Amino acid sequence: MADAVIAVIPSRYASQRFPGKALALIGGKPMIVRVFERVSRARGISRVLVATDDERIARAVRDAGGEAVMTRAEHTSGTERMAEVAETHIAPLYLNVQGDEPLVDPGSLEELIGTMEAESGRQGAPGVATLATPLRDVFDAEDPRVVKVVTDLAGNALYFSRAPIPHTRDAPGGGASAVAGKARPPQWKHLGVYLFRRDVLLAFPKLPPGRLERLESLEQLRLLEHGYRIRVVETPHDTVHVDVPGDVARVEAILKK
Fold first, then answer.
1. This prediction's pTM
2. Share of the chain above pLDDT 90, in %
């Protein structure tokens, strides 16, 4: 039986802000193992693979009963690493969950898969889907580490940015503040989870990076700049990605709750 959806968790050791974070212990388990376990709980996924270029990460995954695939070291993004996996592991859809998302919600992954599968074969169906959740924290709105997204009326991404978008012109302090007497227009936090059609995933490494991608340092802008549509699926479940060592304590506190 052919795989319907392969989940790929790209993970490398040499993170600039937090070297070795994939193996950082969260509640006694390496972070990459926690991500693998949560993704494995989502229904509709045929296979979960950790794609890495480091034997230490692969060993941790295998010791936990998971499956790891060794990939080339020269990839510049997790999506490029996924594309290498897709060359030899065949499926119509590939789920990308970053290796620093130990709180990713399995139900949100199921909703993302369901949305893409429901639109499969329709004319004009998007080749990529991703997750977003309402932005609840005013500090997150101003934090460039937290990526924001705006969509069109059909739910397709118009733009991703590290800046607070949309900007509310009449609000004191701009887009992150409430307009007096009115509810703040909804702002959406982008979650680093993607579902790719195979043809789009294989095309990605061949696309030259665009100006907006370089300015914002956001690889998903490459797809928009080259005319690909990205469907944004809303979820109420926020997550906390581990970017710096201090984020480990935040995740552990949430797990204890």
1. 0.91
2. 76
